[in-house]
């Protein structure tokens, strides 16, 4: 029995390029919530030098993560910003019984 391969792309069209990702990216895609989250985790680790624990907390809370990125865009040191947000800011939010969606800006 022979198998015949069928070309699914018209001959006059180039196939879509395939992007290869590292094992680290696939791990985060599978376990941590999608490609955007995976890319954000890798960026936070490589560019901002955050610990895995800091990354877990920031990326696990979308409003907090977005707030962190806005603070970084203003030129604040990424590590100092993470320390302040994960320490003082979260403590203040807890004391006032607010969520990260209610961060007063």
Automatic annotation (TrEMBL):
Keyword Transferase (UniProt): yes
InterPro entries from the UniProt entry: Asn/Gln_tRNA_amidoTrase-B-like, GatB_C_1
UniProt KW keywords: Transferase
Coiled coil: none
Signal peptide start and end residues: none
Gene3D superfamilies tied to this protein: GatB domain, N-terminal subdomain
Organism superkingdom: Bacteria
Molecular function terms from GO: carbon-nitrogen ligase activity, with glutamine as amido-N-donor; transferase activity
Keyword Zinc listed: no
Name the record gives this protein: Glutamyl-tRNA(Gln) amidotransferase subunit B-like transamidase
Species for this entry: Fonticella tunisiensis
Native organism taxonomy: Bacteria, Bacillati, Bacillota, Clostridia, Eubacteriales
